[in-house]
Amino acid sequence: MFNRLPLPDHVDPEKTGSVWRVDYRQRAVDAKKWARQHGILPAREDAQKVAMLLIDVQNTFCLPEFELFVRGQSGDGAVADNRRLVRFIYQNLGRITQLHLTMDSHRMAQIFHPVFWVNNQGEHPEPYTQISAADIEANQWRINPGLLERWDFTRDNAAAFARYYTSQLEQGGKFQHTIWPYHAMVGGVGHALVSAIEEAVFFHGIARTQPPEMILKGEVPLTENYSALAPEVKNGPDGRGLAPRNEALIDTLLAADRLIIAGQAKSHCVAWTVQDLLAEIEKSDPDLARKVYLLEDCASPVVIPDVIDYSDSADRAFERFAAAGMHRVSTTRPLDQWPGFSNG
To answer: In terms of Cα–Cα distance, which of 62, 176, 180, 165 is closest to 114?
Structure first.
């Protein structure tokens, strides 16, 4: 049986919705002491390698005052999710071998930010505008002429790229091209991990002598990268690559004995990462799906009141994942009650 550890004295899950500076020096001392007190061994000694993938647990998505807070249907979605996630990491510190964290990482001029596009009046689209291939054909939106030199576009091949890109997204069967508020800006406070998560991840790394793996995604300006594993559009109309797949991360995740996935948003970056992972699993060995655990009470869908609600699409995606053999689990049950988890 896997015994849940108590929370260290410094942990206050109710602070999860706040930003603060982590006291690394003190937490390092605390983590070493905690490992000795509870007999927590270095991660290299784990007989069963348990990886945990945390997707985009950043201020920009997880705190109400930031740009793209994932409120879910409850209104406090990502904050409540991260309270549970913080508890889960500390309580299962001795079982989690490796933490992998993706970080959405953006610049001002990217294909999903308003400044990238203009209409015939020179106006930028409002956040949450959806731009279809038909809109491009009708010349309702075009790539901002002031940015063309940045990518060696002429007006003609910029128009061709816009038609191609929006068509590729629609043919992929996910969503139309969406304009998002400026978010996850590299160097900004929104880009940073939620302080409570950062502290828990640092504490885990010291206690288990296992540094976390940090994965930046989404910096390529001419494609979206909802999934941590691959861009939404891989090649331009001329066949040249826009952004590579993260083959190293795919291999690392599939090499784990058990893989737990949590983060934001359930309807977008989580769902699309899991979908890409499942595609790899189905190509190699469908039975590998059984070692994937989706921590469903630590992820919420994008819900913007009176604008859009992706709850149903998130639920449908998770139903597909479960049908393929993945497990939908929650923090309310200990690990040894998760299907297949007690079997080393």
So the answer is: 180
| Cβ-contact 270, 261 below 8 angstroms | yes
Pair 123, 150 in one domain: yes
Nearest alpha carbon to residue 294 among 309, 279, 275, 281: 275
Q: What is the DSSP letter of 187?
A: T
**102 in Cβ contact with 54 (< 8 Å):** yes
Q: How many domains does the chain have?
A: 2
Residue 220's contacts (CB-CB under 8 Å, 6 or more residues apart) are 231, 242, 243
pLDDT digits (tens, 9 = 90+) for 228-267: 999 999 999 988 899 999 999 999 999 999 999 999 999 9
Do residue 217 and residue 154 come from a single domain? no
Residue 314's CB is within 10 A of a number of other CB atoms, namely 23
Could you please report the per-residue DSSP string of 20-74? ----HHHHHHHHHHHHHHHTPPPGGG-SS-EEEEEE--BHHHHSTTSTT---TTT
**DSSP code per residue over 134-146:** HHHHTTS-EE-GG
- Whether 263 maps to a domain, the answer reads no
Q: Is the dihedral of CA 178, 182, 183, 187 positive or negative?
A: positive
Beta-carbon-side half-sphere exposure of residue 128 (alpha carbons within 13 Å)? 11
**Model confidence, pTM:** 0.95
Find out whether 335 and 95 touch, Cβ atoms under 8 Å. yes
| Residue written as token pair 């550890």 | 5
Query: Where in the sequence is the domain holding 5, given as residue range(s)?
Result: 1-54+93-106+186-192+206-222
Bridge-based pairing of strands 117-118 and 303-304 is unpaired
Tens of pLDDT along 194-224?
Answer: 999 999 999 999 999 999 999 999 999 999 9
Taking the C-alpha atoms of residue 181 and residue 72, their distance in angstroms, rounded to an integer, is 17
| Residue 31 located in a structural domain | yes
CB 71 within 8 A of CB 78: yes
CB 51 within 8 A of CB 43: no
